[in-house]
Amino acid sequence: MTAGGTTSAFEAAIVPWLDAGYNLARWLLRDEAQAEYAVQEAVLRALRYFHALRGGEARAWFLGIVRKTCFTHLEQRRDGREQNGLEDDHLEVLQWSAGLAGQDPALLVEQSQGRGRVDAAIRALSPPLREVLVLRELEELDYAEIAQVVGIPIGTVMSRLSRARAQLKMRLSPTGQAGRS
C-alpha cells in the first residue's frame, strides 16, 4: 500500500473516533488540556502501529490506545494524589445557552446544577468503574468492545458496570453524596 493509501486508510479508520477518544481521555485524566495532549499522542501511536490493526474494530483499538496513553500520563504525574481537573461546567452551560433565546434563567441554573451533580457523581467513581461507565453510557460501546479496550473479561465489564451504576444511583439520590466529592 502506498504512503497516501495508508494515510487515507488511517484517516478513515481513526478520525471518526477522535471525539470518543477525547471524551474518554477527559474522564480518565479529568483535565481538558491533558486530554487533548493524550489524544494527540494516541493518534501518533495509532499511526505508528496502524499496520497492527488487521481488519479489527478501529474504535475499540484506538480507544485502547487512548486508555493506555492516559494511564501512562497518570503514572508520570502521580505524586500521591489524583488531580481534580474540574471543568468549568457553569461556563460551558452559559456558552451553550447563549444561543437559546427565551430560556428561563431559573431553568438554566437548574439544568446546570443537575449536569454538575451527574458530572461530580461520575468523577467520584474509581477510575476502573468510571472508565467502563463512560465507555458504555457515553460512548455506547458494547460489552465485548469495552472488554477489548480495557483488557478485561466481559464478566468483569458487567460487574464493574453494575457497581458503577449502583454507586451513581446512590450518589444521585436525594440522600446521596454527589455534592460531597
Descriptive notes:
With 181 residues, the chain is mostly helical. It has 2 domains: 3-77, Orthogonal Bundle (Rna Polymerase Sigma Factor, Chain: A), CATH 1.10.1740; 98-176, Winged helix-like DNA-binding domain superfamily/Winged helix DNA-binding domain (Arc Repressor Mutant, subunit A, Orthogonal Bundle). It is built from 9 helices and no strands. α8 packs across α9. The termini are far apart. The model is unreliable at 79-105 (pLDDT under 50).
CATH architecture of the largest domain: Orthogonal Bundle
Class from helix and strand fractions: mainly alpha
Estimate the mean pLDDT confidence. 78
User: What helical percentage do the residues reach?
Assistant: over 70%
Summarize this structure briefly:
It is built from nine helices and no strands.
Key structural traits:
mainly alpha; globular; 0% strand; Rna Polymerase Sigma Factor, Chain: A; Arc Repressor Mutant, subunit A; 72% helix; 9 helices; 181 residues; 2 domains
